[in-house]
């Protein structure tokens, strides 16, 4: 055990985590030159296309360290390094928290050209809460725009470490990587635990394999597990045989046994996804541990949206797909719901808008499911006139206005780090989103940290995109939930020919309702195809119509055969056509294309 090191890499987006992981794998010869590629641990197509890490990835490396002893002899010692590469985007912070729970140390990577960003600080606090040993690493020092001295001062201010403790490297060229491996061995403590105690293993991830069932990844805190052992999962109490245990290299490598301190996987032929939970404890049936491993928090979704199958017959298939996806992405939550316009579907909870986009894309690619996603909402608390309080996740659950005493909406504590040049536009953006300025703090002469309290409902749409565009990509953003505050919210409904489309309904602040309603009507007018009858698109608050657009009917020229003659002949034909259109409107229904739902999300 003294030669095992478990560590993760944490950093802001694009600071070089995955590239540094590539170099570590290369230097330790874990991946052969033939198999080597950029971002080797990012195995999803989506990750490669977008250049972001979505899943944390575990891999084991063997590192042979050669040291000179006093008599000029070279002593070799082999270490087992378990690396977990983590995502950098704020929407995948739950992945980071799970990786941190399985480690004793962390490499904190900071870009020498950009300095400390919001997510760097957020991930650092996560690591410090778990008492991890932090090794600061300054990356990209080979670039002309690098500012090593200024960034080193920022790291010293943040961590309180000595300047000589900061490692400097270039993950692209491999410069400084051997020193990082030595620092991992010297500074990160070996895992603690008793190999002879009852088995206690923390499940930190799982994947679904159609041939072998569910594969769970675990970190052993105490005890030993062997192939063929009779084990059980603590939270469900279900028992299984360990058909195969092994370590995670580039591919899974079976081995006979794993003991305390190690990271590995178990295959036990589990077919039902509900039987495995991230954060659960695996123990032996014959000699179980007394209590499960503590400290694993349940995920708190930030954004809620309805996910419906395009074809209503695919409802059960969609349920199975979401359950399998939830195995691999524990931050996704879902519950069944139904809609008048879209039939049966699920109300899903996401950590943010990017997370929602990625889940939708993964359902399409990995499970071949065509889905419609409704307008995202956050969770509101409503106090009724009879004194009771209810949670509202979507507009259709909002009670009638005469039953509502008070509506409370979630607020976030937002931390924005930007260059001093962009402070004006950033503050204006936050003020427009009903933000309250709490604090301004200059990190350096050129970089400022601004703290705001903002309503979460204003942030879930396009706040992050706008922040990036007004700051030319320099601003970084991080947040946490900061309780509920009373607010003036109304339910904005979209009516097509007088019938409400509940998938397009949204809960919004009263002052924003008029402009949003008008824009939605204008957008839908362009997107809804013309029918054989007029389609009235209306935005309404309760029984009050606040905006209207009309999609004109497609009309046949019924008067073409009349040339000359009395005007009454033409009028008779037009009146007959009008009657027909009226009857058609009574029985006709309006199809809303998927592009219309997506366009409403991207309203400016």
What this model shows, in words?
By secondary structure, the protein is an alpha+beta fold. The protein has 5 domains: 4-187, Rossmann fold; 200-284, Translation factors (Elongation Factor Tu (Ef-tu), domain 3), CATH 2.40.30; 303-323 and 330-374, Alpha-Beta Plaits (2-Layer Sandwich); 381-487, Alpha-Beta Plaits (2-Layer Sandwich); 492-601, 2-Layer Sandwich (Alpha-Beta Plaits), CATH 3.30.70. It is built from 14 helices and 31 strands. The strands form 6 sheets. Strands 11-10-16-7-8-15-12-13 form an 8-stranded antiparallel beta sheet. Strand 10 and strand 11 (239-241) form a beta hairpin. Helix 12 (510-527) runs antiparallel to helix 14 (594-601). It is globular and about 120 Å long. The mean pLDDT is 78.
% residues in beta strands? 25-35%
Low-confidence stretches: none
Identify the CATH homologous superfamily of the largest domain.
P-loop containing nucleotide triphosphate hydrolases
Enumerate the strands of the largest sheet in spatial order, edge to edge or round the barrel. Answer: 11-10-16-7-8-15-12-13
Gyration radius from CA atoms, angstroms: 29 Å
The total beta strand count reads 31
Give the count of structural domains.
Answer: 5
Q: Which outline best applies? A: globular
Task: Find the CATH topology of the largest domain.
Answer: Rossmann fold
Q: Helicity, in percent?
A: 25-40%
Distance between the termini: 56 Å
Named at the architecture level, the CATH assignment of the largest domain is 3-Layer(aba) Sandwich
Average pLDDT: 78
Total of helices: 14
CATH class of the largest domain: Alpha Beta
| SS-based class | alpha+beta
Biggest sheet descriptor: 8 strands, antiparallel
